[in-house]
Amino acid sequence: MQKEEYRFGFDVYSSSNELLPEDAVLVEAARKVTEKAYAPYSQFQVGAVAKLNNGETISGTNQENASYPVGICAERVLLASASMLHTDVPVHTMAIAYHNLNGESGHPVSPCGMCRQYIAEYETRTNQPIRLILTGMEGKVYVIEKASQLLPLSFGSADLK
Ligand code: THU
Asked: Measured between alpha carbons, how far is 30 from 19 in angstroms, rounded to an integer?
């Protein structure tokens, strides 16, 4: 028997004012695009904005449904658009912000498990890690260099071979 250990580090900024200018621009755009969420059931509006390797910017917001499980998260709306509009172009950095209309929006939240799985496969298929910037409408910002670090021991396409 041997023990394995998984650890990763990430950067914590006390506010978006401390970010690199290009990251601050993405954060502001993600906060702004939360307005485009369709979240009448949760009132939890999520906005994601990504910069692609080709310089294009893509955004997504959560899209809910009266049949609750039909709803889709902002991250997967974004990546599905990127896949269609800029097929095979790696995503360099994705900023994710949220506006909780029923509560506070001052601490970062991180992607749900389903989105982690989707993001991890996007990294694999485009052969490039995705940088994540996580934040609310104000307050701390987390920067994670490889999104797949959030999903250790993940199941992926290689397992199906
Ligand atoms: N949601 C996202 O869009 N992204 C996340 O990372 C977490 C959760 C959405 C799903 C649902 O519409 C609402 O937020 C509340 O869970």
From this structure: 14
